[in-house]
Amino acid sequence: MNNIINTIFGTDLSAQITIIALIGFFLLFIKNKLVMFLSGISEKTATEFDDIIIEALRKPTTYLIILVSLSLIIEKLNHYHELILSFNTSKIIYLKKEDDPILIEQTYEITIRIFKIIIIIIAALIVMQELGLSISGLLAFGGVGGLVVGLAAKDLLSNFFGGLMIYFDRPFRVGEFIKSPDRNIQGIVESIGWRLTVVRTFSKNVLYIPNSAFSNIIVENATRMTNRRINQIIGLRYDDLDKIPSIVKKVREYLISHKDIDQENKPIVFFKSFEASSCDFIIYAFTNTKDWREFLKVKEEILYKVSDIIKLHDASIAFPTTTIDWDNKKNI
């Protein structure tokens, strides 16, 4: 119906709401006429069963038409005015205008589906009550049956609710790179289903992960990082110990003036420690880019420049060495 309304009335919101309301009133009118027609026929029959059925359907069909009409009107208003964005349920559906439109659309769709299921269940219960069926007995049976089904399909239900929590908590979305230090999971999310989440690894293999697994593991979303980090330790020879202060100073000045280094997080360059074969200093900085290839390019440029600074000071990068001291003293 939405597609038909959009095709006929375009983007005119008032016209769309008017036609939805008119269709609702028209359906109520047709329903009343149909009930009156069927009632006239049923009065001529010998049994009362058909009268009971027609009377039982009178109110539920009215409620159903009204609920569907209101649902369509709210959907149209939300599409143009983003009413659901200003509706704050604190913890249940937390949407913000700066969120990704695709993510908002996915969350909105799943919310509408849940509401539609609830409406259908309520309408079915009303119809059954009007038909004279015992709703209390049905609910009691449903409770026991639900317990049995829940125990039998525990894993299926845990995956279902795990997928629901992924939609609402949004630790990741399709297209983002995730990894878990708890499990051997690392790759780009391709799809999020009700039972499985599909992740494509760097080796182009596909991981099919049950949604329930994400409730028990730590997930790192690398796509949402703000910067990438350079954490490099460089060792110089012990023969160049006196040159380290000037080398460290030059490297620090270079990083502070580098356009691709985040200056809000000041780069750290300090002499760090004496090691077995080297005197180490540390380079700790954050790049402005978070793109992995661009990060490698910036890091490569910095390492080449550090190597040039070391050479300009007639120093060398250390490598593992062994020194043997000969004792020239004669034995007495």
Report strand order across the widest sheet.
Answer: 4-3-2-1-5
Proportion of beta-strand residues:
5-15%
Summarize the main sheet.
5 strands, antiparallel
Rounded average pLDDT: 77
Give the CA-CA distance, first to last residue.
Answer: 109 Å
How many DSSP H or I helices? 9
List the uncertain runs.
83-99
User: Order of SSEs, N→C?
Assistant: HHHHHHHEEEEEEHEEH
Helix percent band: 40-55%
Radius of gyration: 35 Å
Task: Kindly give the count of domains.
Answer: 3
Q: How many distinct beta strands?
A: 8
Structural class: alpha+beta
Broad shape? elongated
Structure description:
The chain has 9 helices and 8 strands. A hairpin with a 4-residue loop joins strand 7 and strand 8 (279-287). It has helices at residues 2-9, 13-42, 49-81, 83-86, 101-130, 135-152, 154-169, 244-256, 292-312, and strands at 177-180, 185-192, 196-200, 206-210, 220-221, 228-236, 268-274, 279-287. By secondary structure, it is α+β, with helices and mostly antiparallel strands. Helix 3 runs antiparallel to helix 5. The strands form 2 sheets. The chain has a 5-stranded antiparallel β-sheet with strand order 4-3-2-1-5. It has a 3-stranded antiparallel β-sheet with strand order 6-8-7.
